[in-house]
From TrEMBL:
<feature type="domain" description="PUM-HD">
    <location>
        <begin position="1"/>
        <end position="231"/>
    </location>
</feature>
<dbReference type="InterPro" id="IPR011989">
    <property type="entry name" value="ARM-like"/>
</dbReference>
<keyword id="KW-0732">Signal</keyword>
<keyword id="KW-0694">RNA-binding</keyword>
<dbReference type="Pfam" id="PF22493">
    <property type="entry name" value="PUF_NOP9"/>
</dbReference>
<dbReference type="GO" id="GO:0003723">
    <property type="term" value="F:RNA binding"/>
</dbReference>
<dbReference type="InterPro" id="IPR001313">
    <property type="entry name" value="Pumilio_RNA-bd_rpt"/>
</dbReference>
<feature type="repeat" description="Pumilio">
    <location>
        <begin position="88"/>
        <end position="124"/>
    </location>
</feature>
<protein>
    <recommendedName>
        <fullName>PUM-HD domain-containing protein</fullName>
    </recommendedName>
</protein>
<dbReference type="InterPro" id="IPR016024">
    <property type="entry name" value="ARM-type_fold"/>
</dbReference>
<dbReference type="InterPro" id="IPR033133">
    <property type="entry name" value="PUM-HD"/>
</dbReference>
<feature type="repeat" description="Pumilio">
    <location>
        <begin position="52"/>
        <end position="87"/>
    </location>
</feature>
<keyword id="KW-0677">Repeat</keyword>
<feature type="signal peptide">
    <location>
        <begin position="1"/>
        <end position="19"/>
    </location>
</feature>
<dbReference type="GO" id="GO:0006417">
    <property type="term" value="P:regulation of translation"/>
</dbReference>
<dbReference type="InterPro" id="IPR040059">
    <property type="entry name" value="PUM3"/>
</dbReference>
<keyword id="KW-0810">Translation regulation</keyword>
Amino acid sequence: MFFFLLIRLISEALQKMKGKIPEIAGSHVSSRVLQTCVKYCSQAERDAVFEELQPHFLSLADNTYAVHLVKKMLDNASKKQLAGFISALHGHVASLLRHMVGSVVVEHAYQLGNATQKQELLVELYSTELQLFKNLVSIKESRLVDVISKLGLQKASVLRHMASVIQPILEKGIIDHSIIHRVLMEYLSMADKSSAADIIQQLSGPLLVRMIHTRDGSKIGMLCVKHGSAK
């Protein structure tokens, strides 16, 4: 009896929120109410909330109060909805990864995405030139160094772009996410000894400990031990 009453109250609440959901999502207290509604509402109601939020996901992605709701919406998103969300991040992946909250959303989308969608997010961090090439996943080479060689791109240009993406992220200490570990691993596998040493020096100490929970992070840890100074 209580459950049916709860469902009815949630439906009524969502009806009253209609047209104001993006504003509610960014509010400290009301965003929690909306999260509860999304958790227990029907799929049709959840889809309606997603549709209303869709034009605002980018601004909500780095909102401290909205981040949990955005993650919840992604967890329950259809394949089409997730694809639409990831496409909406285009051009903003690097800037969101420099944001403590925004980076959580990008990582969540990265974890939920398929191989093509993961590549779509990563390419933006690798090179502006690479973004011009479609269907990169169809290329058999899995390492970035092999991909840019096959496409005839300048490795130095790609490395410069990657360094410009990586440095601000490391400076802010945002290092827990697997998408960042993937980028770092690709960079270190291509960079010259001096450039790699600069990154390794930044990663030594507490930052490195926070990375070893992922496959790429543990590989980076081994590289740091191998190539880092005794200090």
